[in-house]
Design a protein that fits this description.
Methyltransferase, Cobalt-precorrin-4 Transmethylase, Domain 2
């Protein structure tokens, strides 16, 4: 059996309880190089064989999985964050399907969640942004043309940009060309949730300058959008006393208050939403 496990965003104690159990029971661990906290490897049982996939090809990774399977052993493929985002797991799973080797997938805490925690950030603020776009710049690995930075910037939603710290001047230019104002709030979070975590709030126009001044060249996430400033947002109606839910009835005396909050005529507020 092969278990694909999300290691979490950095801190060793941010792996899931299930992920921790699978790591501690594995006969073989193949982990994603410097991106995985070595503290997680200390959870391995005595005799567990550990491989650093940064030094391996896909074929070599699969070869170790096949060897373990032939010996009746369990393999943990330990990916950084949550492997569904830039984890290159599908290509591994397809080969395992071809070879008739069983596998499953244990999710983890993605780096984009860890980066939000560094700034106590809510990506989806009412009346500011209700969408999060996760993307990256094209580098040695291309990005489909229909998924250009400019096309995403046109939405003015919150954006989280992976794998692009070394291209920040170009990123700023393309974000502005796509529609973000130069003074749109932005942030750089280096090694989110690791002990050496650092975070910097800036603007779209000053991303490259901020990274240069603080010697950030890799292993960072870029966040862009008005939600970074966490201002000018509306209170959540769901928890307002004048808002009816499946579990709580609004009080009549508070209808005028919620109408004023939403800028609606009294009595126009829809009370039918469910939590």
């Amino acid at each position: 059996m092969v278990h694909f496990v999300g290691a979490g965003s950095g801190a060793a104690d941010l792996i899931t309880v299930r992920g921790q159990r699978l790591v501690s029971e594995a006969d073989v661990i193949i982990y994603a190089g410097s991106l995985v906290n070595p503290g997680l490897l200390a959870m391995a049982k005595p005799g567990c064989r550990i491989f650093d996939s940064a030094k391996m090809t896909l074929e070599e990774v699969i070869e170790e999985m096949v060897k373990a399977e032939a010996a009746g052993e369990t393999t943990v493929r330990l990916h950084t964050g949550d492997p569904c985002i830039y984890g290159a797991i599908r290509e591994q799973m397809d080969i395992l399907d071809e070879k008739g080797i069983s596998y499953d997938y244990c999710p983890g805490v993605s780096a984009f969640c860890g980066a939000a925690s560094a700034l106590n950030l809510e990506y989806t603020l009412p009346n500011v942004s209700q969408s999060v776009i996760i993307t990256r710049m094209a580098g040695r690995t291309p990005v489909p043309e229909k998924e250009s930075i400019e096309s995403f910037a046109a939405h003015h939603a919150t954006m989280v940009i992976f794998l692009s710290t070394g291209m920040l001047e170009e990123l700023s230019e393309r974000l502005i060309a796509g529609g973000y104002e130069p003074d749109t709030p932005a942030a750089i979070v280096y090694k989110a949730t690791w002990p050496e975590e650092r975070s910097y709030v800036c603007t779209v126009a000053t991303l490259a300058q901020t990274a240069k001044e603080n010697h950030v060249t890799k292993t960072a996430l870029i966040m862009v959008g008005d939600a970074i400033a966490h201002t000018n947002y509306q209170r959540s109606e769901l928890y307002h006393p004048a808002f009816t839910t499946e579990f709580r009835q609004a009080t009549a005396s508070s209808h005028s208050a919620v109408a004023a909050l939403a800028g609606l005529p009294e009595g126009a507020q829809d009370g039918g939403a469910k939590e």
